[in-house]
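Anyone opening a protein record will find just a pair of labelled lines. The record below illustrates this layout.
***
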Amino acid sequence: MTYFTNKVVWITGASSGIGEALALELALQGAKLVLSARRQDELERVKKLTNLAADAVLVLPYDVTDFSIAESKTSQVLAHFGRLDCVVHNAGISQRSRVSDTPLDVYKRLMDVDFFSTVALTKAVLPGMIQQKSGQFIVISSVAGKVGTPLRSGYNAAKHALHGFYDSLRSEVFDDNIRVNVVCPGYIRTNVSVNAITEKGEKFGQMDANQAKGMPADECAKKILAAAAKDKKETFIGGTTEMAAVFLRRFWPSLLFKMVRKNTPK
């Protein structure tokens, strides 16, 4: 038995990267899964990889920026499993563009995907969790939610916003036995930089060197779930560089800002 055995866990952004790795690890730990992303074919691929019984995995295609359907999608989950124990807010996109070049519609898209979508889904599932007096939100933020870096201003802003919102929620739902765990990965070996958007709203299409050398997604997934099982309120996952940046941000922010400035592309 594991902490997640027989728990119903809904993962957004489950078709690749950290989301896919979480689905596979949760399957090994005996969870029942709801897999959401826009691409149904990729979700079906992940479902097959879990090797779970067909009725133990609900493939639920879902564009998280369509806020109006969050409640109906929640109803589908409850109709299938009868309950929902945990939501992993993992869907997101990154950015590669300068503030001076980035129009407001790109910033809006970033905030819609990386922040407002989590708020919409949280509000949809929260009444059920309050009623059953149990639940958990695992929120995939980023080291960028603590340390602002160049070319990612909108992404940084959205991740910072997650911390403020979910820190507030954690206090509000404590007496309802609902856990809120915010996770801050650093460089993880996924296509997050490839899929990042430019000032034109187009895919960046390049793998960052740090991303390519980052922690494997399956290792990251294990660390995320271990932290959630222990109810760690805020967890940082990554290599020496990212952890050093978090440390400097807290104790020597001026030094960190100087280092970031020197590494800003000209």
